[in-house]
Design brief:
The complex is a heterodimer of chains A (462) and B (494).
Chain A (H helix, E strand, L loop, with lengths): L3 H16 L8 H18 L5 E3 L4 E3 L1 H20 L9 H20 L3 H18 L9 H31 L4 H6 L1 H4 L3 H18 L7 H8 L2 H25 L5 H22 L5 H21 L3 H28 L15 H4 L1 H15 L5 H15 L3 H27 L12 H19 L2 H10 L1
Antiparallel strand pairs in A: 1-2
Helix pairs in contact in A: 1-2, 1-4, 2-3, 3-4, 3-11, 3-14, 4-5, 4-11, 5-6, 6-9, 6-10, 9-11, 10-13, 11-13, 11-14, 12-13, 12-18, 13-14, 13-17, 13-18, 14-16, 14-17, 14-19, 14-20, 16-18, 16-19, 17-18, 17-19
Chain B lengths: L13 H17 L4 H24 L9 E9 L4 E7 L1 H20 L8 H20 L3 H10 L1 H11 L4 H30 L4 H4 L6 H18 L8 H8 L2 H26 L1 H27 L4 H20 L4 H32 L15 H14 L6 H16 L1 H27 L12 H19 L2 H22 L1
Antiparallel strand pairs in B: 1-2
Helix pairs in contact in B: 1-2, 1-4, 2-3, 2-4, 3-4, 3-11, 3-14, 3-19, 4-5, 4-6, 4-11, 5-7, 6-7, 7-9, 7-10, 9-11, 9-12, 10-11, 10-13, 11-12, 11-13, 11-14, 12-13, 12-17, 13-14, 13-16, 13-17, 14-15, 14-16, 14-18, 14-19, 15-17, 16-17, 16-18
The chains are: A mainly alpha (462), B mainly alpha (494).
C-alpha cells in the first residue's frame, strides 16, 4: 500500500511499453487519460501512507506523499492537455517515457540517501532525454535541443556526483540526515560550501536556476509543446521538494549557504526577466520566465525554517498551475505543432476565443504576481519569509523584478486583447478543452484568494 | 471585535454587501447576450450599490472617530491576515462618491461603446468592487489585493476600448502604478514584522523609530505619489486619461486618483507621523510645483481631454498641499477637494465624451463655438468649468478656501504660490470656456443634450451647487475623524 503510487506509475509505463509493440490506435489518448486519472486518485488515497524502506534510504512520509500528489497532478494534467493534433512521433513510447520520468521524480521526493537520489534523478532524466527529439515537425531544432539537453544534463549530473564525493568524504555517510547534521562543521571551510553547491547543481539544473539555466530556452524551443510543458513543470516540483528536504534537515540557518543562494536567486531573476523582455517565441519567453521564477522560489529556501519551506512549496504548487495554463494556451494555438507560437500569433485571440484569452490573461497576471491570483499570494509568502529572515536586499530585488517582468507578461495580454489580426477565424474549443481552461482559471484564483487550506497543509508537512 | 471597530448595527454584513453587489451584477451579465440587457443589468447593479451605500451613509454616526459597520473574519490565519472592513469619516464620503460615479459611467457608455459591450460592463463593475474594497479594507493585505486588482480592469478599459495611442498609455499606466505598489508591499511586510499583524488600525499611532518611519514613509510615498499623481510622477496621467474611453477617464479622475491621497491620509499620517512631518516641506513644495507647472501646461493645450487631465494634476496638488499642512482645516479642505475634484473633473470628462460622440474630435477648435446651438450643453459645461477653477458658489471654492487658509497658516510663501496657481487655473479654464462657447462662427447641426445625458449630468450639477452653497452636512460627516487624527498627530509630534 505504501508504495502503491510508485508501483502504479511503473505499471502505467510498462503498459505503454507493451502497447508500443502493437499497432497505433487513436484510443491511446483515452486510455492514457483514464489511467493517469486513476493514478492521481491512487496517489491521493495513499497520501496518508507512512513507512521507511531500504535501511532508511527511502522515506514515505507526509512530505513525500504531498509532493507525489503534486507530481501526479502535474503528470495527469499534461496527459490531459496533450492533444492529438500536436502529435509527437511514437506515441506509446512518449507516454511510457513520461510515466518513467514521473516515476523517477516520485522516487526522488522519497529518497534521503545520495545514491538513491542519483538513481532516481537519472531514471527521470533519461526518459526526458529520449522524448525531447520525438517531435513530428521535420526541423533540426529538436535534434539540436535533444543533444544540448543530453550533454548539459550529463555534465550537471557529473558535477553533482563530484560534489557528492566531497560530501561523502567529509561526512562519512551517504544519508542526508547524517550529512546535514555535520553541516555546521564543514561549512566553516570553503570546500564544504563548494561541495554542497556542486552536489545541488543537478537540482539547480532541473529548476533552471542561474548559473545552470542556459539550457532552458533552447530546449523549450526545440522540444514539442507537450514535452516542454512537462519539462517546464513537473521536474521542477521534485527538485524543489529535494531542496526543501535539505533545508528541513539543516538544523540551523547556514549563513554561508544563504549568501550563495541569494546571489544565485538575484542573478536568476534579473537575468531571466531582462532577457525575457526581448523574446518573440512564446516558449522561449516562458523559458526565461521559468529562470526568473526559479530565482523567486529560492527566496523561500533562504530562511531554513518551516514557514519558508511552506512558502516555497506553495509557490511551486501555484507555479505548476499557472505555467500549465499558459502552456495550454500555447498548445491549443499551435494545433498542428509544426511551428512554435510567437507573440504575434496571439493577436486577436480575445476575438477568436474569449475563454482562451481569459486563461492567458489569468495565467500571465498570476506569473507577474498581480492579485487576486495565486502568483501574488505565493510571492507574498516568499517575500514575508525572506524579509523575516532578514534578507531585505533580495526582497527588494525581487520586487523590482516583478515590475520588469510585468512588461512581457502584460505584453501577452495586450497583444491578445487589443491588437487586431488578419486572421479572425474563431478558434473553436472542444468541451473538455473549455473545462480544462475553466479549471485552470478557477484553481489559480482560488489559490490566490483562499490559500489557507493548502498553506496549512504544507506547514504540517514540513 | 477589536477596539477600533464599532459593531455593525445591521443583521447582515452591510459593507460586504456594498462591495460585492457589483460582482453579483457581473455574475448575471455573464449569462446575458443582448447588449441592452447587459447595459441595463450593469446600471441596475450600480443603482443597487448606490442604494446600499446610501443606507450606509444615513446610518453613519458622525460623532465617533472609530471605524463603523465593522466586519472581521480570519482569512489567512497562518500569517494573521484578516478580512477586516470598516468605514470612518474619511472613507464614507469616498465610498458614496464611488457608488455615485459608477452608474453614471455605465450611462455615459450606453452609446459610445459598441464593441464588446459585455466585457466593458464587466470591467466597470469589477472596478467598482475593487474601488469600494480599497476604501473599506482595514487589513493591509486585503487593501493591497483590492488596490492591485483594480489595475487589471482599468488596464483593459484603456487597452481595449482606448484611443489610437492606447498601447503606450495602458502599458505606462500599469507599469508605473505597479512600480509604486511593490514598494508599498515591502513597506507593508516591514510593518507586519514589527507589529505581528496586518491590521491597519493596529499599526496606527505607534511609536516606531524615526529611521524606520523614514523608510516606510518613502515606500508609501512612492506608491501614493504615483497614484495621485504628484509632480515628477505625473507623466502617466495625461496619456492614460487622453486614451481611455470616457467612462475610463471618469473613473480614473474621480476615484483612482483619490486613492493616492486617501493613502496619504489613511496610512502615512497615522502610521508614520514623524516621517510625514519631517517630509512635509518637500511634499508641500512638490504640491506647489504641481499646481503651477500643471497650470502653465494647461494654458498651452489644444486637446480638451489633455487640458482637463493636466488640470487634475493641479487640483490634486491642492489636495496634497492640504494634507501636508497639518491643520484640521487643511485635512478638511483636502477631503472636500477630493470629493469636489471627483465630481467636477468627472463631469468635465463626461462633457468631453458627449461632444466627442458628436464631433469625433477632442481638439478644442473642432468643438468650438457651441454656444449658439447647444445651450443646455454650454450651461452644464459653464457650471463645471467655473467649479473647476473654484468660483465662489461652487463646490471647489469651499475646498480650496480651506486649503489656502491652511497653507497661509503654515507658510506664507506656500500660500502665495498656491494663490498664483489658482489664478492660472482661472486663466486656462476661462480660455477653454470662451473657445467652446464662442470660438467659432459657423453653424453646425449637432443635437443638444438628450435625456440620458441630462440624467447623468444633473446629479453632478446638484452636487456642485449644494457643496458650494451649503457644505455643512459634508463637513460634519468627516469632522470628528479628522479632528481625532489631528489630535493624535499633535500628541505624537510633541
Amino acid at each position: 500500500m505504501t508504495l502503491l503510487p510508485e508501483l502504479y506509475m511503473f505499471l502505467f509505463s510498462v503498459f505503454f511499453l507493451f502497447l508500443s509493440v502493437g499497432k497505433k490506435r487513436t484510443s491511446l489518448f483515452t486510455a492514457a487519460r483514464v489511467l493517469a486519472l486513476v493514478g492521481f486518485f491512487i496517489t491521493l488515497v495513499c497520501s496518508g501512507a507512512r513507512g521507511v524502506f531500504f535501511a532508511g534510504a527511502y522515506q514515505v512520509d507526509f512530505f513525500s506523499q504531498i509532493f507525489k500528489v503534486l507530481l501526479s497532478a502535474g503528470f495527469t494534467l499534461v496527459v490531459f492537455m496533450f492533444e492529438k493534433e500536436n502529435e509527437v512521433e511514437n506515441l506509446p513510447e512518449f507516454f511510457m517515457f513520461l510515466g518513467f520520468s514521473t516515476l523517477g521524480l516520485m522516487i526522488l521526493v522519497s529518497s534521503v540517501e545520495l545514491i538513491s537520489i542519483v538513481v532516481s534523478l537519472e531514471i527521470s532524466s533519461f526518459s526526458l532525454y529520449a522524448i525531447v527529439p520525438l517531435r513530428k515537425a521535420q526541423t533540426r531544432t529538436q535534434i539540436e535541443a535533444a543533444m544540448k539537453y543530453l550533454f548539459f544534463g550529463a555534465i550537471s549530473t557529473g558535477i553533482m556526483l563530484y560534489g557528492m564525493g566531497y560530501l561523502y568524504g567529509m561526512a562519512h555517510s551517504t544519508y542526508l540526515p547524517d550529512i546535514m547534521a555535520r553541516l555546521p562543521q564543514f561549512l566553516s571551510q570553503p570546500l564544504g560550501v563548494l561541495a554542497i553547491i556542486l552536489a545541488l547543481s543537478a537540482f539547480f539544473f532541473k529548476l533552471s536556476l542561474f548559473p545552470l539555466h542556459f539550457w532552458a530556452p533552447d530546449i523549450y524551443e526545440g522540444a514539442s509543446d507537450a514535452t516542454t510543458t512537462f519539462i517546464a513543470t513537473v521536474p521542477k516540483i521534485a527538485a524543489t521538494a529535494l531542496l526543501i528536504r535539505l533545508a528541513m534537515l539543516a538544523s540551523s540557518s547556514p549563513a554561508q549557504l544563504a549568501t550563495v543562494i541569494i546571489v544565485f536567486a538575484a542573478f536568476s531573476m534579473t537575468l531571466g526577466n531582462l532577457v525575457g523582455l526581448v523574446q518573440k517565441d512564446l516558449k522561449r519567453l516562458l523559458a526565461y520566465s521559468g529562470i526568473a521564477h526559479a530565482g523567486y522560489l529560492m527566496m523561500g529556501l533562504l530562511s531554513f525554517n518551516r514557514e519558508g519551506n511552506a512558502a516555497a512549496a506553495y509557490y511551486i504548487a501555484v507555479y505548476l498551475f499557472m505555467n500549465l495554463a499558459l502552456f495550454y494556451v500555447v498548445m491549443l494555438l499551435s494545433r498542428r505543432g509544426e511551428k512554435n507560437v510567437t507573440i504575434n500569433d496571439l493577436s486577436g485571440l480575445a476575438r477568436r476565443s474569449p475563454l482562451l484569452a481569459l486563461t492567458l490573461a489569468v495565467a500571465a497576471f498570476s506569473l507577474a504576481g498581480i492579485p487576486p491570483t495565486g502568483g501574488f499570494t505565493g510571492k507574498f509568502f516568499l517575500f514575508v519569509t525572506a524579509f523575516k529572515a532578514g534578507y531585505l536586499a533580495i526582497v527588494i530585488i525581487a520586487a523590482v523584478n516583478t515590475v520588469i517582468s510585468l512588461f512581457y507578461y502584460l505584453n501577452l495580454v495586450r497583444v491578445s486583447y487589443s491588437r487586431e489580426s488578419e486572421e479572425l477565424r474563431p478558434l473553436a474549443l472542444a468541451f473538455h478543452e473549455k473545462v480544462l481552461c475553466c479549471v485552470f482559471n478557477i484553481v489559480i484564483i482560488y489559490l490566490g484568494l483562499m490559500p489557507f487550506g493548502l498553506i496549512d497543509l504544507f506547514r504540517d508537512a514540513m | 471585535m477589536s477596539p477600533y471597530l464599532t459593531m455593525n448595527p445591521f443583521g447582515f454584513p452591510i459593507l460586504s454587501t456594498v462591495i460585492f453587489l457589483p460582482l453579483a451584477g457581473v455574475f448575471f451579465i455573464l449569462f446575458l447576450k443582448d447588449g441592452n440587457k447587459i447595459k441595463t443589468t450593469a446600471f441596475v447593479a450600480g443603482l443597487l450599490t448606490l442604494a446600499a451605500s446610501l443606507i450606509l451613509f444615513f446610518n453613519f454616526d458622525a460623532g465617533t472617530p472609530l471605524f463603523q459597520f465593522g466586519e472581521s473574519l480570519a482569512w489567512i490565519p497562518a500569517y494573521n491576515i484578516t478580512y477586516a472592513l470598516g468605514v470612518d469619516g474619511i472613507s464614507i464620503m469616498l465610498i458614496v462618491l464611488t457608488t455615485m460615479i459608477s452608474p453614471l459611467c455605465v450611462l455615459c457608455s450606453w452609446k459610445a461603446i459598441e464593441k464588446r459591450v459585455k466585457e466593458f460592463m464587466i470591467c466597470i463593475l469589477l472596478m467598482e468592487t475593487a474601488m469600494i474594497g480599497v476604501f473599506c479594507a482595514l487589513d493591509f493585505i486585503l487593501f493591497y489585493v483590492f488596490w492591485e486588482a483594480m489595475l487589471i480592469p482599468m488596464y483593459l478599459l484603456i487597452a481595449v476600448w482606448g484611443g489610437p495611442n492606447k498601447d503606450y498609455a495602458s502599458l505606462k499606466f500599469f507599469i508605473y502604478t505597479l512600480f509604486g505598489s511593490v514598494f508599498l508591499l515591502v513597506a507593508i511586510i516591514a510593518l507586519y514584522l514589527v507589529n505581528g499583524t496586518f491590521s491597519i488600525p493596529e499599526a496606527m499611532f505607534k511609536g516606531y523609530s524615526f529611521t524606520f518611519q523614514i523608510w516606510v514613509f518613502l515606500a508609501f510615498a512612492i506608491a501614493f505619489a504615483i497614484k495621485v499623481p504628484m509632480f515628477p510622477f505625473h507623466t502617466w496621467l495625461p496619456a492614460a486619461h487622453t486614451e481611455a474611453p470616457t467612462a475610463g477617464s471618469v473613473l480614473l479622475a474621480s476615484i483612482l486618483l483619490k486613492m493616492g491621497t486617501y493613502g496619504f491620509i489613511r496610512f502615512c499620517l497615522p502610521i508614520v507621523p514623524l516621517a510625514s512631518i519631517y517630509f512635509a516641506p518637500f511634499m508641500i513644495a512638490l504640491s506647489i510645483v504641481a499646481i503651477i507647472y500643471a497650470g502653465f501646461v494647461c494654458l498651452s493645450q489644444t486637446d480638451m481631454k489633455k487640458l482637463i487631465a493636466y488640470s487634475s494634476v493641479a487640483h490634486m496638488g491642492f489636495v496634497t498641499l492640504g494634507i501636508f499642512t497639518f491643520t484640521v482645516y487643511g485635512f478638511m479642505g483636502a477631503m472636500l477637494q477630493m470629493l469636489n475634484h471627483g465630481v467636477t473633473t468627472g463631469a468635465l470628462f463626461l462633457m468631453v465624451g458627449i461632444i466627442y460622440e458628436r464631433t469625433h474630435s477632442r481638439q478644442i477648435y473642432d468643438n468650438a463655438g457651441l454656444g449658439k446651438f447647444m445651450p443646455a450643453y454650454m450651461g452644464f459645461f459653464g457650471l463645471f468649468a467655473l467649479s473647476s477653477f473654484a468660483f465662489p458658489g461652487t463646490n471647489s471654492f469651499v475646498g480650496e478656501l480651506y486649503v489656502l487658509i491652511s497653507a497661509f497658516v503654515r507658510s506664507r510663501t506656500a500660500g502665495f504660490f498656491a494663490v498664483v496657481g489658482a489664478v492660472v487655473a482661472a486663466a486656462y479654464m476661462l480660455k477653454l470656456l470662451k473657445q467652446i462657447a464662442w470660438g467659432r462662427e459657423d453653424k453646425r447641426d449637432f443635437k443638444d443634450l438628450n435625456v440620458r445625458e441630462f440624467v447623468y449630468l444633473t446629479p453632478l450639477a446638484i452636487f456642485v451647487l449644494w457643496v458650494g452653497l451649503f457644505p455643512a452636512p459634508f463637513v460634519r460627516v468627516m469632522e470628528t475623524t479628522l479632528v481625532h487624527l489631528f489630535m493624535q498627530l499633535n500628541k505624537l509630534s510633541q
